[in-house]
Design a protein that fits this description.
Layout: H1 9-16, E1 22-23, H2 27-40, H3 50-71, H4 87-113, H5 119-144, H6 153-177, E2 180-181, H7 184-203, E3 211-213, E4 216-217, H8 218-247, H9 256-260, H10 264-279, H11 284-287, H12 289-313, H13 324-335, H14 341-374
Helix pairs in contact: 1-12, 2-4, 3-4, 3-5, 4-7, 5-6, 5-12, 6-8, 6-12, 10-12, 10-13, 12-14
Length: about 375
């Protein structure tokens, strides 16, 4: 497995023909963030590789996740009567979240500034973004947490899926239209949440206990914003962009089946993980919510990365992801009672570890393959033949 090649020769040939095509129509991004990023990118030295900027931003998101895992392992820290997360942690998380968001906005500009744009850079950026979804959502959860003033772990599970489907929707659009329409919700959510982290440090989590309008709590606003953004902005805009491409006869896939193939694996992942939750003898989501979210988010990231490879190389998306097989076996074992409650936690941890190692292996091997194909170093602007 160490030298397994995930990118087929057909896909490598497709990458040779790839041209970046994206459209950003978000006013916040166009009139505020892009001018800000254009200024920030000038601070970076021209020898700094864009992929290194991308990876640094991703590591900050992971650090925030791990930091709150330490201070809020079971999501009860924000509940009344529990030891709260220290104020300085919220400040650190808020600053690092905005820095990570800034680095994500700057990396492409650094690539164009240094004339080092490659398909690998785009794949690396969006691939890490797909994994960042779970880190970002789960970290935000600690603001409200569980308990009487918070959000239940099952509601958060559903909200996580709203975010995951919103993310993959953009890449489904590009798979069918050839254009990546950047979602409005991303920029708005990153700026808002960074601000909320800082506010939490100033006013304390107790401020979120009180209703902000009649009996409408802040946790309800949190839920409504995620669902509302997905249903009222992301989904309608995606369908509109797809319809426009259909009307102009520029769709890349003619049949409904081929157009919808990218949704098969995410939908099956959602179905299997939900059945596991509902049929769990030990109430697995209540016992290990953070691990369960991470397992689902990692499997989703692997599915999305394979879709991104296919959309960039203009090849067919695989119908099913192989990671779903061990998940299916675990869910079947739980469903028929073959997995006793005391073994269920072990199965979850084992599956999570396997998914994590498999996804890291996939990412490393794909980067190696494309780096060799394009004859570049992924984290340096030097060419291999320049040594």
């Amino acid at each position: 497995m160490a030298g397994y090649e995930y990118v087929s020769p057909e896909q490598l040939a497709g990458f040779d023909k790839y041209k970046y095509s994206a459209l950003d129509t978000n006013p916040l991004s166009l009139y505020i963030m892009h001018p800000f990023w254009n200024t920030i990118v000038k601070v970076f030295p021209t020898w700094l590789a864009p992929n290194l900027i991308t990876f640094s931003g991703f590591l900050l998101v992971v650090f925030n996740f791990l930091l709150l895992t330490y201070f809020d392992p079971d999501f009860y820290a924000s509940a009344p009567g529990h030891k709260h997360v220290p104020d300085w942690v919220w400040i650190v998380v808020g600053i690092l979240n905005f820095v990570a968001y800034t680095l994500d906005g700057v990396d492409g500009k650094q690539a164009r500034r240094t004339n080092s744009s490659t398909p690998l850079g785009e794949l690396f950026d969006h691939g890490l973004d797909s994994w960042s979804c779970v880190y970002f959502v789960v970290t935000v959860y600690s603001i409200f947490g569980r308990g009487p003033t918070g959000v239940s772990v099952f509601v958060l599970y559903l909200l996580l899926w709203v975010v995951l489907f919103s993310f993959i929707l953009s890449h489904w659009e590009k798979y069918n239209t050839g254009i990546l329409f950047l979602p409005w919700g991303y920029d708005i959510s990153q700026v808002t949440i960074s601000f909320v982290y800082i506010v939490t440090a100033v006013v304390g989590v107790e401020a979120w206990y009180e209703p902000f309008l009649f009996n409408f709590l802040y946790r309800d606003l949190f839920t409504a914003m995620i669902i509302g953004c997905a249903l009222c902005v992301t989904l309608p805009m995606s369908l509109l962009n797809f319809f426009r491409s259909y009307k102009s006869n520029t769709l890349k896939h003619n049949s409904v089946y081929e157009a919808m193939v990218p949704f098969f694996s995410p939908c099956l992942l959602f179905t299997l993980s939900t059945v596991w939750i509902l049929r769990s003898p030990s109430d697995i989501l209540e016992m290990h919510p953070r691990v369960f979210y991470f397992m689902v988010g990692t499997a989703f990231a692997n599915i999305t990365c394979q879709l991104i490879v296919c959309q960039m190389s203009s090849t067919r998306c695989p119908t099913l992801n192989w990671l779903l097989l061990p998940l299916f076996l675990v869910v079947m074992a739980v469903n028929v009672g073959a997995a006793a409650s005391h073994l269920e936690s072990l199965l979850l941890y084992t599956l999570t570890a396997a998914f994590t190692l498999a996804h890291i292996h996939y990412g490393v091997q794909v980067v190696k393959q494309l780096s060799s194909h394009f004859q570049i170093y992924p984290f340096s602007l030097r060419k291999p033949n320049s040594d």
